[in-house]
Design goal:
The protein is an alpha+beta fold. The chain has two domains: 97 residues, 2-Layer Sandwich (Ribosomal Protein S8, Chain: A, domain 1); 83 residues, Fe-S cluster assembly (FSCA) (GMP Synthetase, Chain A, domain 3). Helices cover 38% and strands 24% of the residues. Belongs to the NifU family. InterPro entries: FSCA_dom_sf, Nfu/NifU_N, Nfu/NifU_N_sf, NFU1-like, NIF_FeS_clus_asmbl_NifU_C.
């Protein structure tokens, strides 16, 4: 295994830190969000991260891991070296990241939540998904999080905010002033955007 380089990057959420690797962890567009240890059953690396008593959430995307801490009084400067060294050593040693391919898991979850939309809702949903994937997701990933489409019904778009976006003080503002405005402009049928996964 080649040497892994990893650096820490602050996110808009002061309780979340993004650890960026020069290595691919997941295919582009696939991500996993573990709000607690129980949710991380499919990811040995996430389970190990939860062993640090200050880790409260783990989000993994293409080439980064976002860690959200549970202790606001704990300074990042004191824990970044420990987390960076752990992730670097784990990946360099070829440690198992996932037991089941998250891409397959994600497809199954999306299919299950999609329900049975009307054909018109289906067209609108696809337009919304394309806009989120092309315009919104890259910006949200820059901040150490992710946004996924959950449903569209009767003018209301439901999205899921993950990683550093969950619990971020500016998430609601971003959602309403950024994402909602974009979707309303590009897809006239959209009346409102609501989010799951935002812990205020």
């Amino acid at each position: 295994m080649s040497a892994i380089s990893i650096y820490a990057e602050a996110s808009p959420n002061p309780e979340s830190m993004k650890f960026v690797l020069n290595s691919t962890l997941l295919p582009d567009g696939v991500s996993v969000d573990y709000p607690n240890l129980e949710a991380a059953a499919n990811s040995p690396i996430a389970q190990e991260l939860f062993n640090f008593d200050y880790v409260g959430r783990v989000f993994i995307a293409q080439n980064f891991v976002t860690v959200t801490k549970t202790q606001p009084q704990l300074n990042w400067t004191s824990i970044i070296p420990e987390l960076r060294q752990f992730i670097k050593s784990y990946v360099e040693a070829g440690g198992e990241l996932f037991l089941v391919d998250p891409a397959a898991e994600q497809k199954a979850a999306q299919a299950a939540s999609a329900g049975d939309p009307t054909q018109q809702d289906g067209f609108t949903s696809q337009k919304i998904i394309d806009l989120l994937d092309n315009y919104v997701r890259p910006a949200v990933e820059q901040d150490g999080g992710n946004i996924t489409f959950k449903s569209y019904h009767d003018g209301i778009v439901t999205v899921n905010l993950q990683g550093s976006c969950s619990g971020c003080p500016s998430a609601t503002v971003t959602l309403k002033s950024g994402i909602e405005n974009l979707l309303k402009r590009m897809v006239p049928e959209v009346r409102e955007v609501v989010a799951e996964g935002v812990l205020v």
